[in-house]
């Protein structure tokens, strides 16, 4: 049976809420702006009047002012947005238990099982729009389709306060002429690669050769090809199904057996850097480090140890990991695969500057690590490396953080 | 457009958790008895700018909206 999936998107969410609460703003170009004092002086969200002047999310405030001299900046009220988001989800959950949020303002709903109660996908979508308008005073655009990807595309097609239906029999007419950059997970880099080969629309992507796409984009290429052909089968997860992160780890099977301490150090360092970067993304620190070792006879074991101070620097992780290895690898056999895992995670918030030398040195290291993250995100993973990586390029050519995560968590949770 | 006027409300909380407003204190000091609650639903107030549980109330035969925007109550007042 074909699924019925809705994607509901709150239009200009932050700006709409601000305009609802302050009627004097309505009709004027409005942007919700970060605090310039804290160097967050950019446009977080804007309404249609501001959009019409060319104001875009992420613009610095001076630029927005230049484009639109009458623009009104208002500070964000996150508590209000959270409240709205929660009530919207409560309304959705009256129609199905399969509600998956994607950020504060978007949700997927799988209503396959409830169409006999509430009517067709379109009927449910129209009812949702009406209720959100009445009960929350803001508008949503809803896409109705048989998979998550097309439902999301649909919600972007007509705005505000509209329903767009994309059926399996007509998707070629509706979806294929759209620019390929409209597709989920076609970001700037992928878009540029595809454009070089004349793949500018979703239709062209759908008709491209699968092997060619795999060659060009790796596993993502296959995934995008499936998306473009309406073959996405990813499920809408259950409401409240939160993926609680308990630990963060990376592992690798080395291109050759690891024999010397230096081999081990290189690999542990790479894995630690990846784990450390991922902890920064989620704002975690860990207090325990665990290593996994498998030797060339496939005998494997895991060992863990406590850090003196909870932290997440790559150096602390790799030093601890190496120490654990030296203590435990008494057999001395060559190693086939290694893993590094950060356990006992806690959320880092409002950290204070410390006068303790150990902690302030961790904090310095932390700054270095985030600078490295930044450089890597701008110029590529291998643009900056430890000297030890040059000792064996074959071992160090691994990028576990990007190579091994195929789908971002938020989309493929299950 | 209307003015958003926060008012003091006396209400009954029953054992099921249902809240029924009984009277409200207007800006000028007058206490108005609420004769009947005709409807209760969540709604936005586009006129005054707000969102909460909207009570359609009858005061002396005249209908009006009273919003419970936790933790405060407000009404939409003519300028």
UniProtKB/TrEMBL annotation, chain A:
PROSITE patterns: UMUC. One of its GO terms (molecular function) is DNA-directed DNA polymerase activity. Signal peptide: none annotated. Residues 5-187 form the UmuC domain. Monomer. Belongs to the DNA polymerase type-Y family. This is DNA polymerase IV. It comes from Ructibacterium gallinarum.
TrEMBL record, chain B:
It comes from the Bacteria. This is Uncharacterized protein. It comes from Ructibacterium gallinarum.
């Amino acid at each position: 049976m074909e699924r019925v999936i809705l994607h509901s998107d709150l239009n200009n969410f932050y700006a709409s809420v601000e305009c609802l609460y302050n009627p004097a703003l309505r009709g004027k170009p409005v942007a919700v702006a970060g605090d310039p004092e804290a160097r967050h002086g950019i446009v977080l969200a804007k309404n249609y009047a501001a959009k019409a002047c060319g104001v875009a999310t992420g613009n610095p405030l001076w630029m927005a002012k230049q484009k639109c001299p009458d623009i009104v900046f208002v500070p964000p009220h996150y508590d209000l947005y959270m409240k709205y988001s929660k009530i919207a989800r409560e309304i959705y959950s009256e129609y199905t238990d399969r509600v998956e949020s994607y950020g504060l303002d978007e949700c997927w709903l799988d209503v396959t099982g409830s169409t006999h109660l509430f009517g067709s996908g379109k009927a449910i979508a129209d009812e949702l729009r009406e209720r959100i308008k009445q009960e929350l005073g803001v508008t949503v655009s809803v896409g109705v389709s048989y998979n998550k990807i097309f439902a999301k595309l649909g919600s972007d097609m007509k705005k505000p306060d509209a329903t767009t239906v994309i059926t399996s029999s007509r998707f070629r007419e509706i979806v294929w002429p759209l620019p390929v950059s409209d597709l989920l997970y076609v970001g700037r880099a992928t878009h540029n690669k595809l454009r070089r080969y004349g793949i500018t629309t979703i239709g062209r992507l759908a008709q491209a050769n699968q092997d060619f796409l795999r060659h060009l984009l790796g596993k993502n290429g296959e995934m995008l090809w499936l998306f473009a052909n309406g073959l996405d089968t990813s499920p809408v997860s259950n409401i409240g199904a939160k993926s609680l992160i308990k630990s963060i780890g990376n592992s690798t099977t080395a291109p050759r057996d690891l024999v010397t301490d230096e081999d081990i150090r290189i690999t542990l360092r790479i894995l630690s850097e990846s784990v450390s970067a991922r902890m920064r993304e989620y704002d975690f620190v860990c207090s325990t480090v665990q290593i996994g070792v498998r030797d060339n006879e496939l005998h494997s074991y895991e060992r863990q140890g406590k850090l003196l101070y909870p932290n997440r620097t790559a150096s602390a992780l790799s030093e601890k990991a190496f120490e654990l290895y030296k203590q435990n690898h008494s057999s001395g056999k060559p190693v086939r695969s290694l893993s590094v895992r950060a356990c006992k995670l806690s959320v880092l918030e409002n950290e204070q500057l410390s006068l303790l030398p150990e902690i302030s040195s961790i904090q310095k290291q932390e700054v270095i690590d985030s600078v490295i993250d930044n450089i890597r995100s701008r110029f590529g993973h291998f643009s900056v490396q430890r000297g030890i990586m040059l000792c064996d390029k074959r071992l160090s050519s691994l990028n576990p953080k990007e190579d091994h995560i195929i789908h971002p968590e938020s989309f493929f949770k299950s | 457009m209307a003015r958003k006027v926060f008012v003091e409300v006396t209400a009954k909380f029953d054992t099921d958790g249902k809240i029924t407003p009984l009277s409200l204190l207007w800006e000028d000091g007058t206490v108005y008895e609420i004769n009947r609650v005709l409807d209760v639903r969540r709604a936005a107030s586009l006129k005054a700018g707000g969102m909460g549980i909207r009570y359609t109330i009858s005061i002396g035969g005249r209908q009006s909206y009273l919003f419970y925007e936790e933790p405060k109550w407000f009404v939409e007042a003519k300028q």
